[in-house]
Design goal:
The chain is of the alpha+beta class and 721 residues long. It contains 26 helices and 28 strands. The chain binds one RNA strand of 85 nucleotides through helix 7, strand 10, strand 14, helix 11 and strand 22.
RNA sequence: GCCCGAGUGGCGGAAUUGGUAUACGCGCACGACUUAAAAUCGUGUCUCGCAAGGGAUGCGGGUUCGACCCCCGCCUCGGGCACCA
């Protein structure tokens, strides 16, 4: 299937004349390619993030530290909740060590809640699910129901790079729009972590707030239903049954239920439990409520109904007090209650596993005791199977392959974004079988100068690639901090009904058909001419004829070539203006106006009886990137032996576009009333003089007092009366 | 709800980023060529008005000699996020 599709795509690309260097083609499904995807995975697996050095470091060096002094003073991005000494570490068995290290590895195994889709028999990412008709979530593909389920997953610790991913945006030459999306997705917020002691207990509730200034107005504290503190406080809670029932309820609540209640906040009080406000020692009740998320901040919130809308809504519903207390300085109060100023991110770690056959195998194996080791010989190839359909269970089809399971190989496969997160590096050195990319090659190419892609990848591919690239930089493979220096986002060509082209709507335009009917050059010119590059536009088979006519008119223009005639200076002037315009427009990705300026040239040329060979050749050259086939043909007909596409790009001659007279518009009170033609060297005073004595202007001014005369160089005179 | 974009003829769009609004193309109308049609070429095509002139860049204000462009307040459409403390 892959081979057939590759052939189809290559044919389509070549039919419209796109000149790729096929010797650098890569195929992410080729074991010779994905052995390096697997290699990167293993590097991530064997790394942790050193928060002091602010880069990835080998897990071995972390293990060394553990052996020496435990993990109490480690500078690492982690989720480990256990504190141990070096001595204790040494006493742990292999499985225990593995479990602890999973909290540090950049690629790690974890039980996590996922979107399980029974219909597709697989787990879906958030951007693969959509809201269905009756408010229930369904898969984007097929529209099957989706529910939450906890399964064994592999994840990528992208959150370790949150700060670098955010800061790096500043230097990128991307559209501000995409940068904004990534910035919001990463979602940095700076606030305070403050501890509330629990009355009659050694436990504390740590909350995160961006409004420490409202600390005196706290009326209660809320825990997320998943909080393990609830278990710990079991002895104190007087309404255990009610609390248990509530938590059970929340857990069983699927997404659709949450939506059906229109997100009305629910919660239950922990009777008998009180938190002590560190600012004033007031005792406030503790609640459990589902509007607090376990996954963000500390999973606990201090409620200030006076200043927070959600808290107010909740307070109103459960008739809790709303008190007004004076505000204080955020930093001072945080320090006073021995809190900490911290930075939190909305972004979560990325799930890195699929329960599908198609995907790079994760190169890990598990021995009988459950200890995971890296596969030594890469690539680890997918086994040949007779059926690769989903198993219907929350595990990949590989779990049903006996030989695979016997070896202890991981049965999840990698997601689609694995191979696409680094492929541009492989372009630099596609056939290297010793390294991902050779040192010399990566030094030469560095990174991608100009990346063109869809804006829909803003929080997917474009973020993952940046993450991997930064990691590869840390381990010395990549040479730059960012993979894509400049980026332009092309708009999508929509169907003529203004919807996305889709088999579902039956509105797909097949490029092969268009090429067959109108020609490849016409298709190219039309797509460029339709409108701004970054704008999504509806396809119009009715309008494409204009581009075809343009091509034909250029072709007919060749009959006007006169080898003896000298260049016509008037036409030459238009030509040089066109060269200038086309040059600037290509630089700016303003292809639509480049084509319009070439149309203007053709309109002009048609008015002349002759056109010199040299002028015509220059015109063909600037048109060549847009209409490569026809221009090449004419180029050879004129007698050129080599390809037009390797000829030198024409430069415009500034001397040839100078006008000897300029047009000056004369306005009265900002309205255009006359037009003057003055010589190029006329002075400001001379032009004003001519304007004021112009017949039509005199009629408009009609003896009224002239308050001001404004002159804009080379453009206009405005007379204010 | 919050955050980004965008709104210009019948249609796709242009406008040197504060200086002649509607370039270029499609469509439409009329004409030339043709026995005829297609193709091609020519002319016209924002709107009201006989004209002189007036009015128009989603709506309402403002700044300015001058605003599609800048500022304030709305409306509509597209995209992103969504109980993020």
């Amino acid at each position: 299937a892959v081979d057939i599709n590759v052939k189809t795509f290559e044919k389509q690309l070549s039919i419209i004349g796109l000149s790729y260097d096929w010797s650098r083609r890569v195929n992410t499904t080729d074991p010779e390619y994905y052995r390096w995807t697997q290699w990167i995975f293993l590097q991530l697996f064997n790394s942790y993030y050193d928060t002091k050095k602010n880069k990835a470091e080998s897990i071995e060096s972390l293990v060394n530290t553990f052996e020496k002094s435990g993990n109490a003073k480690i500078n690492a991005h982690h989720t480990c909740k256990i504190i141990f000494t070096g001595k204790e570490w040494k006493s742990f068995d292999g499985l225990k060590k593995q479990e602890i290290l999973m909290n540090y590895r950049l690629a790690y195994e974890s039980e996590s809640e996922v979107n399980w889709c029974e219909g597709l028999g697989t787990v879906l990412a958030n951007d693969e699910i959509v809201d269905g008709k009756d408010g229930k979530t369904v898969s984007e593909r097929g529209g099957f129901p989706v529910e939450k389920m906890t399964i064994r997953q592999w994840s990528m610790r992208i959150t370790a790079y949150a700060d670098r991913l955010l800061k790096g945006l500043e230097k990128l030459e991307w559209s501000s729009h995409i940068k904004e999306i990534q910035k919001n997705w990463i979602g940095e917020s700076v606030g305070s972590e403050i501890e509330f002691k629990i009355k009659n207990s050694d436990d504390k509730i740590k909350v995160f707030t961006t409004r420490a200034d409202t600390l005196f107005g706290v009326t209660y504290v809320v825990l997320a239903p998943e909080s393990d503190l609830i278990e710990k406080l079991n002895d104190q809670i007087q309404n255990k049954k009610e609390v248990e029932k509530y938590i059970d309820n929340v857990k069983n609540k699927s997404d659709e239920d949450r939506k059906n209640t229109e997100k009305e906040k629910t919660g239950v009080i922990l009777e008998g439990v009180y938190a002590i406000n560190p600012a004033n020692n007031e005792e406030v009740p503790v609640w459990v409520a589902d509007y607090v998320l376990a996954s963000y901040g500390t999973g606990a919130v201090m409620a200030v109904p006076m200043h927070d809308e959600r808290d107010r809504e909740f307070s109103t519903k459960y008739e809790l007090p709303i008190i007004d207390r004076p505000l204080v300085d955020k930093n001072d109060i945080t320090e006073k209650v021995r809190g900490k100023i911290v930075t939190k991110y909305k972004m979560r770690d990325a799930i890195f596993a699929r329960q599908r056959y198609w995907g790079e195998p994760i190169p890990l194996k598990r021995d009988k005791d459950g200890v995971i080791t890296a596969v030594k010989k890469l690539p680890l190839e997918l086994p040949k199977v007779t059926s690769y359909e989903p198993t219907g269970k929350a595990e990949g089809p590989l779990a049903g392959v006996k030989t695979w399971v016997k070896e202890g190989y991981e049965t999840n496969t990698m997601p689609g974004w694995a191979g696409s997160s680094w492929y541009f590096l492989r372009y630099m050195d596609p056939k290297n079988n010793k390294n991902l990319v050779g040192e010399g090659e990566v030094d030469y190419w560095k990174n991608v100068d100009m990346y063109v892609g869809g804006a829909e990848h803003a929080t997917g591919h474009l973020l993952y690639s940046r993450f991997w690239h930064k990691f590869l930089k840390d381990i010395g493979v990549a040479k730059t901090e960012e993979p894509f220096k400049k980026m332009k986002n092309q708009g999508m060509i929509l169907a003529s009904d203004n919807r996305k082209m889709s088999k579902r709507w039956g509105n797909v335009i097949n490029p092969d058909e268009i090429v067959k009917t109108y020609g490849a050059d016409t298709l190219r010119v039309y797509e460029m001419f339709m409108g701004p590059f970054d704008q999504s536009l509806p396809w119009s088979t009715e309008s494409i004829i204009g581009s075809r006519r343009f091509i034909e008119r250029v072709y007919r223009l060749a009959s006007k070539i006169n080898k003896d005639k000298k260049t016509n200076s008037e036409l030459e002037k238009v030509l040089h203006k066109t060269i200038k315009k086309v040059n600037e427009d290509i630089e700016n990705f303003a292809f639509n106006t480049a084509i319009s300026s070439m149309m203007i040239f053709v309109n002009e040329a048609e008015k002349h009886e002759n056109i010199s060979v040299d002028d015509f050749k220059i015109f063909l050259q600037i048109l060549a990137p847009f209409a490569p086939h026809m221009t090449e043909e004419l180029w050879h007909e004129i007698g050129e032996k080599k390809s037009i596409h390797i000829s030198n790009w024409p430069k415009y001659n500034p001397k040839k576009i100078i006008e000897d007279t300029i047009k000056i518009v004369v306005q009265v009170n900002g309205k255009v009333r006359a037009e003057l033609s003055v010589s190029l060297d006329a002075t400001e005073d001379q032009i004003k003089e001519i304007a004021l004595n112009d017949k039509t202007i005199l009629a408009w001014v009609d003896g009224k007092e002239i308050k001001r005369v404004i002159y804009v160089k080379g453009r206009l005179v405005n007379i204010v009366i």
